[in-house]
Amino acid sequence: MKQSNEVEILLEAIKVCMLDKPTNKLAILLQREIDWGRLEKLVTFHAIRPVVFKALQEVDCRNEFYEKLKLRTFHQSVFNLATSKELSRLLNLFQQNQLRVIPYKGVLFIKEIYRNQALRETHDLDLLVHPEDAKKALYLLLADGYVLDVNNFRKLDNDSIIQSLFETPGIIEVGLDKISAVGINIHIDFHWHIKEEIHDFKVNYEAFFNENGNINQSQNTLFTMLLIHHGGRECWTRLKHFCDLIAFIKTSGMSINDLEVIASELGMKKFLKIGLEILDQKFLDVEIGHSQKHKVISDIGNYWETGKVWQRLDHRLRFTKIYFSLLDEKISIYIFVSNVYQYLSTPNFIENPRLITFPKGFGLLNFISKVITFIWRKTILQKRTLT
User: Fold this and answer.
1) DSSP states of 357-373 as a string?
2) How far apart are CA 243 and CA 51, in angstroms?
3) pLDDT value at 143 more than 80
4) DSSP string of 68-117?
5) Strands of the 147-149 sheet, one edge to the other
6) What is the pLDDT of residues 282-321, one digit of tens each?
7) Pairing relationship of beta strands 125-129 and 185-191 according to DSSP bridges
8) Closest listed residue to residue 41, CA positions, set 91, 86, 7, 78
9) What angle do CA 47, 189, 171 make, to 5 degrees?
C-alpha cells in the first residue's frame, strides 16, 4: 500500500532531520494537496513534532502548522529542563533511601542517544524500579507530594489502591503527578517491569542495575530498553520508534551484528530484523524483495496511517496480528487468550467501572462484563458524548 501524502511528509521529515538527507523531496511533498488537520493529528500520534519542526525549518516552510510545531518544540525544551532537574533530585532521594530506581526510555534517551538535543518528544518522566523496591519507592513519591493518576472513582485510600496495583495480573506501571516549583506538571510513569507477562522476551532485569542500584549505562542496556519497548511492546507502530533507532545507531557505535546478538539473547530476532528492514526500506531507500516479511512491513505501514492505538476493537486486533507476525517462536492462541482472559477476568480498584463487577471468584462473568463494558463505552456511550 502506498503511504498517504501526510505520512510521506513525516517520513521525509525524519530523513531530513535525522539522516541529513536533501530537502528537495520534502519541499515537493509540501506543495501537494495536504490535509493539514490530519497531518497535525498524525504528527501528534507519532510523537515527532520537534523533528518535523526542524525539517520544516530546513525547507523554510512557514504556516500555521509550522507555528504550532514551533510552540510545541519550545514547550518541549522547557519540559526537558524541568524533568532533568526533577530527575536528578529524585534519584538522589531514592539513593538516600537505598532504593533501586533508574531512568527509563524518554529522559534517558534524550541524554544518552540524542545528546540533549531538543528533538525527542516526550510527555512524562519514566522511572524503572526494581520490583523488590517498588512499594517503598511508590510510598516515597507520595510522601514527596506526588499523587496517583488513577481512576479512583470509589474514593479509596492510597493503601487500598497500591495493594490492588500489585495484586492484579498484567499491571506493571502506574502514573503519578506533581506540580513542580516552577509551575510545570511533572507526570511520572512508574514502572516495576518493562514487559507484560504475555510477552516471552528473555530480559535479564538485574543487568539494568549496577551494584549501587544506579543504571548500568552500557549501550546494551539502552538498546535492550529500545527493542523491548519499541519493537516488542509497540511493534514499531509509531515513527518515533525509528527516530530513536536512527539516533541510537548513529551515536552508539554498535554494529548491526552487535544489535543482532542482543536481539538473539532476548528472543527477539524477528522484531529487530523487521525494524531494520523498515529502516532500510522507508528511510534509507534500500529496495527489499517481496517475501512473507513484506506483508508485516505493509501492515505496520498501514497502522501508521491510522494514528490511533487502542481507540477501537479493530485497532487492537490489527495490532495483535502484527505482534504475532513478529514473534520468533509462535505461541499458541490458547496461551495468548488464556493470558488475556486472566487479566480481563480480574477486577481491580483503578480500572474504569464495569457495567457489573462480580466477586473475584466469578472470572468468566467478570470477563464477559469487561468485554461488554468496552464495547458499550466505544459505541453507545461514545455516540451519546458526541451528540
Assistant:
1) ---TT-HHHHHHHHHHH
2) 9
3) yes
4) HHHHHHHHHHHHHHHHHHHHHHHHHHHHHTT--EEE-THHHHHHHTSTT-
5) 101-103, 125-129, 185-191, 173-179, 147-149
6) 999 877 665 555 789 999 999 999 876 655 556 677 888 8
7) parallel
8) 7
9) 110
Task: Name the residue with cell 540533549.
Answer: 116
Beta bridge partners, 177, equal 147, 187
Which one-letter amino acid corresponds to residue 206? E
Amino acid at the residue 112: E
Nearest Cα to Cα of residue 218 among 163, 262, 153, 157: 262
> What pLDDT shows up at residue 387?
47
Burial class for 101, CB neighbours closer than 10 Å (0-12, 13-18, 19+): buried
Average pLDDT, the chain: 86
The whole-number pLDDT of residue 184 equals 86
Q: What is the pLDDT of residue 15?
A: 97
Q: Which of 351, 344, 338 lies closest to 367, judged by CA?
A: 344
- 332 pLDDT more than 50: yes
Neighbours of 135 (CB within 10 A): 15
Nearest to 171 by CA among 195, 148, 204, 147: 195
For residue 349, give every residue at least 6 positions away whose Cβ sits within 8 Å of its Cβ, in sequence order, or none.
152, 154, 156, 160, 161, 164
Q: Please give the sequence-ordered ranges of beta strands (E in DSSP) within the chain, or none if there are none.
A: 101-103, 125-129, 147-149, 173-179, 185-191
For 225-228, the CB contacts below 8 A with 24+ separation are 225/104, 225/105, 225/108, 225/194, 226/109, 227/259, 227/262, 227/263, 227/266, 227/268, 227/271, 227/272, 227/275, 228/194, 228/195, 228/201, 228/203, 228/266, 228/268
Rg over alpha carbons for the chain, rounded to the nearest Å, is: 22
Q: By the 8 A CB rule, do 236 and 230 touch?
A: yes
Q: What is the DSSP string of 317-345?
A: HHHHHHHHHH-SSPPPHHHHHHHHHHHHT
| Residue 372 pLDDT | 79
CA separation (Å) from 345 to 335, 340, 341?
15, 8, 6
Placement of cell 479493530 in the chain: 314
